[in-house]
Amino acid sequence: MTTATKVPVKPLGDRIVVQPLEAEQTTASGLVIPDTAKEKPQEGKVLAVGPGNWDESGAKRIPLDVNEGDVVLYSKYGGTEVKYGGEEYLVLSARDVLAIIEK
User: Fold this and answer.
1) 89 contacts: CB under 8 Å, gap ≥ 6
2) Residues 39-86 pLDDT 10s
3) Which of 87, 85, 102, 3 is nearest to 48 (CA)?
């Protein structure tokens, strides 16, 4: 299991902190894509995971399906972009995560 980078941002509830991965900068044929034409990345590495939401009775927390170090695919317009300590992070709700990418 890989360890994630420690971040000074601790998510609450069912939220996670993701560091977006860079999008491809060249096409399959070798053409370089300019910054203005690049798509917003939808893949990122999970750096921190919240404790999960409480169940309906309020007796126990429901854990999240993702763990620190996972690479995930998330909704294109989901989450909130945050800059902290010179780094850019994305804070997502667990429902914005579409899949875990297994490499």
Assistant:
1) 7, 9, 17, 18, 19, 47, 81, 82, 83
2) 666 899 999 999 999 988 888 999 999 999 999 999 988 889 999 888
3) 3
